Every structure is written in C-alpha cells, then in structure tokens.
Amino acid sequence: MAELTFADYQFLAELGLDRVNDGCFDGTWRGSGEEVQEYSPITGKAVAKVRQGTKEDLESCLSNAEEAFKVWRNTPAPIRGDIIRQIGDAVRQKKEALGKLVSLVMGKIYSEGLGEVQEFIDICDFALGLSRQLEGKVLPSERPKHQLLEMWNPLGICGVITAFNFPCAVFGWNSAIALACGNCVIWKGSPTTQLVTIALVRIVTQVLIDNGLPPAIVTTVTGPVEVVGEGLIRDPRVKLVSFTGSTKTGKYVSQVVHERFGKVLLELGGNNAVVVMDDADVELALRACVFAAAGTAGQRCTSLRRMLIHESVYDTFKERLVAAYKNITIGDPLDSSTLMGPLHSQNSVNIFLDGIERIKAQGGNIITGGNAFTDKPGYYVEPTIAEISHDADIVKEELFCPILYIFKFSSLEEGIALNNSVPQGLSSGIFTTSLKNMWEWLGPNGSDTGLVNVNMGPSGAEIGGAFGGEKETGGGRESGSDAWKQYMRRSTCAINYSDELPLAQGVKFDI
User: Fold this and answer.
1) pTM here?
2) CA–CA separation, 312 vs 409, rounded Å?
3) In CA terms, which of 83, 175, 356, 501 is 20 to 30 Å from 415?
4) List 158, 181, 184, 301, catalytic entry
C-alpha cells in the first residue's frame, strides 16, 4: 500500500477530514461498509480512507430524507433561498481549502479548482434569486367564471450522481436548484473523489443544523455502484435521478429509472468541435482553443476534441498551435506555474495510450505529444495533437484525455456538417468576424449542440444559462435559465367560481 500523504496537506483538517472518514450522512455521519483508500493523481499515493456506505445505510438515508422532506417542502421558498445563501457563504469561507482539495484528488490546476468552487458559490446566489421567482401562470378559460392556473410543487427526493471531473460544481448545480424548489437531495459522488463529497456535505449540513432544520434534507452515501448506484436509480422514493457520466452508463440509468416512471436528467458524453473560419481572429482562437483542449488535461465534458480549420489558414494555424502546445507546463497542479496537471487515474493514462495506438492504426499522424511520463510518480501525459480522417471510427468517440484532432475544411457549410457529424451534441464554437457566418452558425442550419458559442471555445459555460446537450449527450439541462422546472412537478389547476357547471368544448350533458 502506498504511503499516506495526509499530513502533507493541512487543508484537509481545515475541512474536517481525517485519516479515516465516514462516507455516509443520513442526519449523522456513519459508514457500515468497507474502508477504501482515496488516492491523489499528483503522486499516485493514498491520501485518506473512507468508510463506505451499505444497502442499510442507503435505506437509512432515504427514510430520513422522506421525513425531512415533510419539513422542507413546507418551508417558504424565500426562506429556503436564504438557507441556500448561507450555504454559499459557508462554502465561500472554505473556498481556498476546497480548491486545493479538488486539485489534490481530481488533478486539475489550483486556479481551476478555485473556479469550480466559485461555481458552487455562484449557483447558490442564483438559487437565492430563484427562490422568489418560482412562478406559475394564470391562463384564460373558455368557460365563464372559470380560471386556469399552472402551479409548480416539489418532487420529493432528488438523487444526484456525479463524476470525478467536477466533484464540487455539478453537485452545486443540482443541489442548489433542487433545494430552492423544495426537494431533498441524496448525493452519490464519484468513488475516486469521495473526500470532496464528504467535505461539501459537512459544510452544507452544518448550515441546516445551525438553522434548526433536519440535516437529512441533504444526505450522501459513498459505496459500490452495484449497491448504492443501483439502489438509488431503482428506488421509487427517488423521484428524479440526475446523472453525469458516460453515454453508455447514462443509457442504462435512463432505462432503469423510466421503467419505474421516474424522471432523469442526463449529462453525458461530449465530442466538441471548434470551427476556425478564414476571417477568424487568429490570436483569439489560438488562446481559446489551447485552454479548451489542454485545460483540465482534456477531462471536461466540454473539452475541445476536434478543431476544424479553414484550408486558407490551416498551415499557419497548425504551426502556431504546435508551438503553443510545446509551451504548456505540465506538473503538480498545486504549483502556480503549472498549466496542465495529471490525468485522474492510471486507467485514464491507459485510455490515452490506447487512443494513441488506435489513432495510428486508423491512419492518423501524431503531430506533437503522444507520450506518458514514466520518470515521475503520478498520472502525467503530454497534450497531443493528431491529424486523421474525420471518418475514422475513433473520431466519433470521447476519449476524455488531452488529444486534439485537427482537420481542414473549405466552406462554412462543410464546417457545420463536420461539427454535426458525431453522435454527441454538447458544445461547439466558431471563430469568425462575419455576422452572416455567426447567424448561420446559430440558426436552424447551424450547430446542433446544446451549447453554441461564437468567438469562444466550447468550454467555460456560465451558471446563468441552462447547461446540457443534445443527441447522445442526453438532452438534460442543469444550472440556470428555466432548468428548475425539471426539479418540480407541474399542476394545471381549473377553478370554478360560478354556480353553474359548464363543460369545456361546448359539451352538453344534462341530467
């Protein structure tokens, strides 16, 4: 077993973490299952242990959340909003420590770790405002002295299953909105970033306790997917399952939840492209695309995977891009000089190396990068650029590592067609100074992704807009705009304030 490095990181104690941590919160901290190690991708060494939850722990969480829901749903929405504001303030007080923890166990650089925690804080601010704007509608009735209303009420328990790459922010997106809508939340974080899950739930539930509310309004269970994951998606008490992960697993989650007529919110694979037109601001495009492709070591669902470059600027842009890649500093993500940290796990490195071999086997050419670092601990690889046919099978996949494909195209129509030709549909961007190109890109003949950008890369979505994608990305929408409607049930209410009983559509039925 690798040597524990817990004592090397004092911010762990600041977050209430210890060498051994209970991984289940049902109102009190517990964990009846196996103790497992959590490792840091920076060194490959273990950081701390987590005592897993069990089937019985999951049942306790769900039972206690059901009771807590009776209190929370009857708490006025603006008061719920103020509780969420306090949660955001509590997270803000621990921002630096949480940012370091995200870097330590996920591997993204510290500024990105801080940015992820800031997303949590920002969505709490958004939810505070939302708590006073959960509006319905008043609709005209065709019947005299009748009124139609559209009202929204809480669903109940919302299950949130998140991935390793954003172990803090995605829980924030879901929990802040779900709580504002009057729901309880049960969270299953990634099994490889459980320390972030535990630290955040400690902060959130302490605010609930301080306000005299049932702490089981927010619960969490870490543990094996076949126990906790299966239990969450199959239990009818979980009215909505929000799942972030692979398309393959998301399809399975959707089938299981829909079989019991539950609701799902899916954020699945991305295979994002940027179109660089012949009139693009090259400096802007270069800076944006290097970050979008190499930032977070290519482990964002919105990372840039495919770069479509107009043939008239292809050679010049390619040369500039390769030069920029050679200047990317790779190393410890907690070091301020680092621009790209490690991949998350040895499995991620294996996927990267296998991808390189498959690119070559399918006729591709590695322009720069393509290697893993074997001379130091941790899971580090070179950011990689490859030329390959857009028809190659591997181009249709999401490898989730810093491999960028570059392609030539000759017209906007061809660029759009290539952008739209993959099964996934999360994010995209175009670089152009032409209004005609911009509106064509944004319109019905343009990009078919859920996030459609202009003079920006595909990554870096803001919390104010609904986040999500089309096709195999799952169609879900989290965070801003009217995404709150997914966390509530809709009632169309007809009210008769007359002494008569007229029927709709002029139907007569006299007795």
Assistant:
1) 0.96
2) 9
3) 356
4) 301
